[in-house]
Amino acid sequence: MEPSLKSELKLLPVDGVRLATAAAGIKKSSNEDLLLIEIAENAQVAAVFTANRFAAAPVELCRQYLQQARPRYLLINSGNANCGLGAPGLEAARLCCEAVASAAGVDLESVLPFSTGVIAEPLPAQKIVAAVPDLIKNLDSDQWIAGAEAIRTTDTVAKGGPRVIDIDGVPVTITGICKGSGMIRPNMATMLAYIATDAVVAAEILQPLLNRAVDASFNCISVDGDMSTNDACLLIATGKAGNPLLEPAMPEPWHRFEQAVTELCTELAQLIVRDGEGATKFITIQVRGTVSNDDARAVAIAVAHSPLVKTAFFASDANWGRILAAVGYAPIENLDISKVEIFLGDVCIVRNGARADQYEEAAGAAVMAEGDITLTIDLHSGDGRIDFWTCDLSYDYVRINAEYRT
Amino acid sequence: MEPSLKSELKLLPVDGVRLATAAAGIKKSSNEDLLLIEIAENAQVAAVFTANRFAAAPVELCRQYLQQARPRYLLINSGNANCGLGAPGLEAARLCCEAVASAAGVDLESVLPFSTGVIAEPLPAQKIVAAVPDLIKNLDSDQWIAGAEAIRTTDTVAKGGPRVIDIDGVPVTITGICKGSGMIRPNMATMLAYIATDAVVAAEILQPLLNRAVDASFNCISVDGDMSTNDACLLIATGKAGNPLLEPAMPEPWHRFEQAVTELCTELAQLIVRDGEGATKFITIQVRGTVSNDDARAVAIAVAHSPLVKTAFFASDANWGRILAAVGYAPIENLDISKVEIFLGDVCIVRNGARADQYEEAAGAAVMAEGDITLTIDLHSGDGRIDFWTCDLSYDYVRINAEYRT
Q1: Which residues between 283 and 342 in chain A have a beta carbon less than 8 angstroms from any beta carbon of chain B?
Q2: What Rg do the C-alpha atoms of chain A give, in angstroms?
Q3: ipTM above 0.90 for this complex
Q4: Exposed end of chain A (fewer CB within 10 Å): N or C?
């Protein structure tokens, strides 16, 4: 059903990171629903969280603990988002962290909790606490794929990706996993993502690097325009590779490292869209020629969120009027409709804000019949641009979300 | 399928307004697709149009002609929106107006064109031109219901409503018809609406009165969050009733008249939501306690546009976490989640930003099982408020819009 989801996941261990998974009975199925990630001492960790003001209890604790300690353990459960429960939710998350801290002999604040799943149902903390001793015992550097499996909710496949780059003759590994399928929209992308590298990275560059990478990847995707309460993306740098320190003073390898992280984030983000709830099409929206990059993002979001555009893609209907209508209500200033140009793949369908003279419906229909479609919208008004990814709106999106709790 | 659409339409003639309909072959079906409305000389007309910058050709002509002449005829076709076609679209609309002007012996600019239907397909102007002589011949004051039928597109029922109020002992009639089902979102509400009254109204008050009425009615509904390119709402006052002039100097009857127009607009707006594409639920969103009315509108729109909230309503699932998540990303400042209170009908489901202590799922499920549901969201942060209306997102919405051109 999903547009070209790769069939086999290959992930590389990262020196300084171990993982373990368990089935604690949080999901209704008997699938694994717990992941513990252990991070070596002295690793650097950067983090980005949801912009939703209604943040889940684990997000609140993460923000608090990150001020107080360097993370050593990440405890992630799927099946329950631990959100909207007030003080008992915070207490449940704290209890789980405490179990890990106690079993591993570290401070409470160095254990970060993450949850994903149904909102607003009490988290069965005792089930998680009971699973912690086995998790600690089973930690292993080769469990990334099991980890990607364990954090799934409505995801139809486990998602992850590897990168190896060379820094002055030293191979550096970057491994990432993520989950996300519905409640996906930018800022940030409504999902969980964990990216680890053994690179030696200066502390001050890791967080801004992650911010930029997220902005160009997870913040450029939308499935349904709903923003989650539990989003989190972590970048862990264990420093075990022994490469020369990546720091502002040596821009070349640092830039290459940032590029590799950004590419991996983009790959993960695209996997989320490809696995979008009910998705049958993968749509790349290239917006060009806006006054600013922010304007390009606003146009991309208007088109990506339009139910009428999304259902037209689902129907393989080159209904470009709906695309132009969405451009027309994008919240940007100085929109000159008479300059707008739109391409479906290589086919120019709109020129000067109206149906292109040469356009024939059959050419548009041929592009729409594909599973991967590139839509290019050029406003010819400046140098602003963005690449944005989204999917269509199908019966299955409605079914999945109507049946989610039943 | 639709939540409580009234079965029988009753409309009253308005002195000074005549209508005629025809089947010109613009719709693929053989249904009527043309409506001509004749307005008596010296009537006052106010108009509101779409805020979409990608406005259809007829909207452009309307804006232009309204600067130049007092409207005498409104020519409305359904089945083709005449949008996105550049100069040929303007020319097609002009040709149709010219046919009416010539047959009726009035200036071109006193004929206003309106179109609704598929975007971006050439308007068959000659079919419309050919139908004009019969339209002129058949004009009759008792054709409001036929008019409401003729302007339908995906609407499953014809929509309209009557009002009669007393102004200093003189009965004044207000009759309105409208169409709209998909591509419905506020600002304005993505539809066509024609409201006529025989009241004698001072020219300077009609337009501001219509602006306020639209703001409280058509701008408070959303079906799918898509904003049309063809929206138009007209208020016609023929002055035939002989009532004392409604003017700022006599606020009491003027206020009562404005209230009646606003109520009728609200009734029409709600009919559009009840007939929302694929709608199975009619949802009233009452937002209270925001800092401003604008904030209340922003919260209502975030909730009304959320596909996850809409699919939960479709599933009759009291998934209040999704509602709270949408409130959490509404673009307002100073949102204190810990004060948020949410009611489903009379059942308090969220208090202080978390599941209400007394709340039991069965009570929420009982409300969700109804066809008409009131959702109240109180932010307890000020006096801002709004009443907003929306519907759920169902399989049928996807089907209708995936099959629209096929």
Answers
A1: 305-308, 311-312, 314-315, 317, 319-322, 324-329, 335, 337
A2: 22
A3: no
A4: C
